[in-house]
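U., I forgot to send this yesterday:
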Amino acid sequence: MKTKDLWDVLEILERGYDCSRSKRKANVLERCIRRGNSVFKAVAVDLEDYFLLIHFGKFTYKKR
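Result:
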């Protein structure tokens, strides 16, 4: 397994899809991207000058 860094988080925030499970504030981004059997999630707050990463996680995709 490759270690993820901030460049990977940036890619998720730019190219990922919206995957919020609950309502978030207007300035909070929650994005996911699928890589094989895994889903990577990044949650960041837009503070106008920069983004503050508040959560990064990996979980297994389950087809329902």
